[in-house]
Amino acid sequence: MSTSSALPDLSALISRRAQTMTASAIREILKITQQPDVISFAGGLPAPELFPLDAVRQAAETALNKYGPAALQYSTTEGHPPLREWIAERHGIPAQNVQIVTGSQQGLDLLGKILINEGDTVLVEAPTYLGALQSFQPYLPQYAQVPTDEGGIDVDALERLLQTTKAKLLYAIPNFQNPTGRTLSLERRRRLVELTAQHGVLLIEDDPYGELRFTGEALPSLYALGLELAGDVDRNHVVYCSSFSKTLVPGLRDAWIEAASPIVAKLIQAKQGADLHTPTLNQMMMTELLPLLPAQIETVGAAYRERGAHMLRQMDEQFPAGVAYTRPEGGMFLWVTLPQGVDTVALLPRAVENKVAYVPGQPFFALGGGQNTMRLSYSSATPEQITQGMRALGQTFREALA
Prior knowledge:
Blueprint: H1 16-19, H2 25-32, E1 39-40, H3 53-67, H4 81-91, E2 98-102, H5 103-115, E3 121-126, H6 130-136, E4 142-149, E5 152-153, H7 155-164, E6 169-172, H8 186-198, E7 202-206, H9 222-230, E8 238-243, E9 254-258, H10 261-274, H11 280-289, H12 293-318, E10 324-325, E11 333-337, H13 344-353, E12 356-357, E13 359-360, E14 373-377, H14 383-401
Parallel strand pairs: 1-12, 3-4, 3-6, 6-7, 7-8
Antiparallel strand pairs: 2-9, 4-5, 8-9, 10-11, 11-14, 13-14
């Protein structure tokens, strides 16, 4: 007797939350650009040749020798105490206000889980980091886009928006933003912190690139400004997220969140349900690598500075009139805007034919838009690849604009 007709329809069992999930546009694009002769500026990957391989190998040996079997055992959800203490000291806060997470992406997912109710309004930059939209979407928010310009978030537009919109939180990347590479000025940072506090809006600051500054002066974090405004770590309405992925190595997946105690308490509970704790050995290794961090930041920053400058020089030479692009002060990305009417999604196959690839800008907009934009990453490309790739991209643009 056949029972196949009684088997459940597995697709129908998928939850409504899961049905809202979508594949990463960047990951899907990377699949079609894997031909060895295509030069890809699509993935925001740290340069692998800059990974401190010998130091990581030594850190693993040191951690195993120092901690023995404890390095391989289950650990506390909050994170390895010496690592949390080092992080906390940088902002002058107690270690209890630091939560270690398994990569920044997990941090965003956990924040979405504990903060977003279905229908809550979440403010995001236009454009914003695609991974944040992916993390928040299963919790079914309503998005409102905050306009941006060359200086980042338009705080005047935000002020008008907050007068008519009851928002739960605002997600922002103030330093060398992904995808545009833009940096928020000190004046705008102060106003952003003050406006969100005034309107009771939680401010999530994502800062994975802040250490990778090429030019200009370092600016205070939104978290530091929020702490200054509140005068108390547990009244600070800014939540700070960062990672060692862009400065040391991404594969260890060591990142962290700094927040007021009520938020950290719920993060701990959410993380227990997700993975119990970030891998013990990885955290111990990262702690052993901390003395190397200043030199590694200098090495990585110098390489990206050179690559970014080379890409801009080639763009100046190769791109036709009417194509605009940002000039980042740091980080890994820059943003290209073509004339209205050019669709960079439709243009991508032609670019691949010309042996170059990028990420179309449209997926970075929560509510649509940006059809004529794209993101380029220079972090993992050689000077030769940049020269050849910008020549091919310039040719692609000329063909599209002809």
